[in-house]
Each structure stands twice: as structure tokens, then as C-alpha cells.
């Protein structure tokens, strides 16, 4: 099997990077999932510096995202969406709605989102056959992207997709296209721009406000509708776009013990979220009965959105 390394290769990395790379490879190989050579555009995955038309769009996306995702904005969004008064529907109905949605922040994928959900879920199911909660988590992790649709408020892309990060404390350098934070009003606000900002050491990610988007929304919907998914599943849903944490190891000072445990599962999940993106279609009708059975196990029939 050929493995493409999208981070510094072994020889050039320092001890820490080498160790990290080893762990990553072990995780992938353990499960038997083979990493594709390149994304659908023939580039390395998550290469935000490659020269291409798509990348220009992605960079522009992050400029607007970083300027507008402020403490004020997140507070307003949380208030609005906790009403859960936008729709009533089942999980599967929501999967079907995602047929319409294309994510402009994603340098690796321009397929409809339902393909991505099923590709991720099927890949993780193959390698972790006994963790049914993980299969369902994969299926639903991006459902929050319905926020882009008219009946869910038709939020702009910058308020729905892309990597997420904490607001209310200093923005970490590892966040993609971080130079655009210089234009954020929170960047110069002394209450928000120190290492801890409005938080304290080990306060737990649960108490941290993340930039608003599909992750936090789907977490809210799952929780408020009484899902029985384990806490690792909810953690994956809520922080799967938080690459500064799960890829770069930033913001660890805000985590508590439960976060540390859950992060292990998030790191496993991330390989499948990222590397299962391909042009190979999943036969929806064939796998639907299996996922319907998981939905019945972990969710009520209709949810408030
Ligand atoms: O679903 C999204 C997405 O496709 C993005 O491009 C990425 O930045 C996020 O981290 C992810 O959760
Ligand atoms: Fe996502
Ligand atoms: Fe995803």
C-alpha cells in the first residue's frame, strides 16, 4: 500500500513530529483502511497552499469566516438555534436534504454531501465493525450543513462550514489562514485576546464557545432531542472541524479529563472523515436499512431542528 504523507515526512521532522506521524500511521493501519494517493483534484489532502482556482475560493472563505466569527456572533447564533423551531424531521430525511449541499470550504471534495456521509460511515464500519455508534456518528456528523438551506435560515457558508476554533480567547497560529484574524474585532479586545481569555485552565471544552457552524448545531440538535449516543460520539460531532486541537494539539490547556479520553476517538474518526472522500459512489439503497436500524436505536423517530 502506498501512503501519501500530507505533513512533514519522517526524515525532516523533529522527535515529536515523528512520534505523531507514527501514531497516525498505526491508527490507520490497525483498522486496515488504505489511504488514497491524493484527493479528487490530484492534490494532497488539506493542502491550503496549493495554487488553484478552488484554493482561491477557500482562502476567501476563511478571510470572511475569521473576520465574522466573534463572541457576539456566536452568542446570537446559539440563542437563535437553541429554539429548535426550524423543522421537524427524521435523521434520514435530513441526510436526503444534504443532497443539495456543496461545501465551499473543502479543498478535497465537491461532491454532494450525502456521498461524503456514506463514504465516511462505510469506511469506518469496515474497520470498526463492532462500534455501531461510530458508524452512526459518521453518518450524521455533517448533517448540520442544512443551515445553508432556506428553511434553516440560509446562513452564509462562512457561518456553517470550515474548520472551527474557540472564540473568547487568543486565536492559535495553527488555525488555517490565521493571518485574517488580524481583521477580527475580537483580535484587539483585551478581554478576548489572551491565552485564557474568558476561560480558565482545564475548564473543559464543554464550557468553551466554538465558532458557529454545522458541528455545534448538530451537537445541539442531537443532545436536545435526547440521543443515546455515547459521549465520544457527541464529542466527535461537536469538534470534528477543530483541527487546531485534534491535528495540531493546540488549546489542550482548556481540556478536562473526559475531553482527553474522547479526543482519542476523534483522532480515529478524523482519518475516515478526511481520507474516505472520493469519486466512488456508495449504493444508498443497499446500505439504507442498516443505517435506519442504527437511527432507531439511538434517536427518536422525529427530531426538532
Ligand atoms: O465538513 C467540514 C469541511 O468539509 C471543511 O472544509 C472542513 O474545514 C471542516 O473541518 C469540516 O468539518
Ligand atoms: Fe464537517
Ligand atoms: Fe465530514
From TrEMBL:
Localization per record: Cytoplasm
Any matching Pfam family: MIOX
InterPro entries, alphabetized: Inositol_oxygenase
Keywords recorded for this protein, A-Z: Ascorbate biosynthesis, Cytoplasm, Iron, Metal-binding, Oxidoreductase
Gene Ontology molecular function terms on file: inositol oxygenase activity; iron ion binding
Protein's pathway: Polyol metabolism; myo-inositol degradation into D-glucuronate; D-glucuronate from myo-inositol: step 1/1
Residues binding substrate: 46, 103-105, 145, 162-163, 240-241
Any GO BP: inositol catabolic process
Binding, Fe cation: 116, 141-142, 214, 240, 273
Free-text cofactor note: Binds 2 iron ions per subunit.
Main location: cytoplasm
Reactions accelerated catalytically: myo-inositol + O2 = D-glucuronate + H2O + H(+)
GO cellular component, one term: cytoplasm
Cofactors named for this entry: Fe cation
PANTHER family: INOSITOL OXYGENASE (PTHR12588:SF18), MYOINOSITOL OXYGENASE (PTHR12588)
The name this protein goes by in its record: Inositol oxygenase
Annotated source species: Artemisia annua (Sweet wormwood)
